[in-house]
Amino acid sequence: MAVAPNMVGFAELAGLAAVPFGPESLASGRNRSPQDPVSAVVDEKEYLSRAMEEWGTTLTALGNGADLLLTGRVEQGLAASVAEYYGIPQATLHFYPEAHLRQSGWVGDAMEEAEDAHRRALGLADATGPSPRSLEIQAYDALYFPELAAEWADGDGCRPFVGALTLELPTDADEEVLSWMAAGTPPIYFGFGSGVWLQHPAHTFGLISVACARLGERALICTGASDFANAPHSDQVKVVGAMNHAAIFPACRAVVHQGGAGTTAAGMRAGIPTLILWHPTNDQQIWGEAVTRLKVGSGRAFSASNLGSLVADLRSILNPQCITRASEVGARMTKPAVSVASAADLLEDAVRLGRVGG
């Protein structure tokens, strides 16, 4: 398994042999927002150029002797060339409906140039048209996007929905969190994800505390990558660094988070309302819109959120209709074990059928 340099340890904890995938110097800091927007663009171009080159090199090395090559969308073009080079099947895993999208502007141009250069390095002819369709697993539930599900159902079966994939790994904090929860009323969960650095965590902590106090609710805050080191703990507010969503969410009143695909699915599977305060990344707003369409919660830009809007949004998702609807939709979500088994079956079938290239 090839993963971002900062994720090698995580993959190894799951019992997998892992190698770093892409440049390390920029991988850990590229989500931070520099003051100079020109520098930000330069950094992104540098990262993309280096990453595409290193991804291609790593995929070529790992593809030698493999039965199948599985990647995400960004590496899909590189993987298709490697799969063609070795004559092996290739598949893509999508965590949100991105299969029908293509990056535009300088990003798309840079990716296309890198993919063409990689093909030449492998001694392959330039691509002259659309590649043959390969397996594109949709690792989320079809009920989020019924129109896409209907559109793809009329195709060739290359875009199957399996539901979200999760390890549901326990953490050292789970027992302590559950004990705290059992000592009072079910709390509202607030999480910020591993890829979000809050500029003013103390302000955010205060906003959450006041909003929950006004509503008579307790708060469970998962800090993720943000620094809440000086945040006080109490019977009404608890702060932890990480927790097992599958174990904790079912005992919560609602979940409030940044809109990551995994956290969204965990909240939905728990059958409780969701408020997504999204950041401007690829998929967070998409999930905010999805929970709103399903009437299991709502979404708002994190930058547009304040004390008044947070109180109003929490009141909205805690109304009986939303709570009932969240429970109903949660019962329709694909179970985690089924999702994993379905994805594994699809990949094994791809090897057996020998579908080559992308």
Structure in a nutshell:
With 358 residues, the chain is α/β, with parallel strands linked by helices. Helices cover 45% and strands 12% of the residues.
Q: What is the overall silhouette? A: globular
Q: What would you report as the Rg, rounded to the nearest angstrom?
A: 22 Å
Q: Residue-averaged pLDDT, rounded?
A: 88
User: Structural class given helices, strands, pairing?
Assistant: alpha/beta
Uncertain ranges: 26-34
Biggest sheet strand order reads 8-7-6-9-10-11
**How many angstroms does the end-to-end distance come to?**
19 Å
Q: Count helical runs.
A: 14
Order of helices and strands: EHEHHEHEHEHHEHEEHEHEHEHHH
- Tally of strands: 11
Strand content: 5-15%
Largest sheet: 6 strands, parallel
Percent helix: 40-55%
Structure description:
There is one protein chain. This protein is α/β, with parallel strands linked by helices. The protein is built from 14 helices and eleven strands. The chain has helices at residues 8-13, 24-27, 37-63, 76-86, 105-121, 146-153, 174-182, 201-215, 245-248, 261-269, 284-293, 307-317, 320-332, 336-353; strands at residues 2-3, 19-20, 69-71, 90-94, 135-138, 188-191, 219-222, 237-240, 254-257, 274-278, 297-301. The strands form three sheets. A six-stranded parallel beta sheet has the order 8-7-6-9-10-11, sandwiched between helices. Helix 4 packs parallel to helix 5. It is globular, with a radius of gyration of 22 Å. The chain starts with a strand and ends in a 5-residue tail after the last helix. Mean pLDDT is 88; it is low at 26-34.
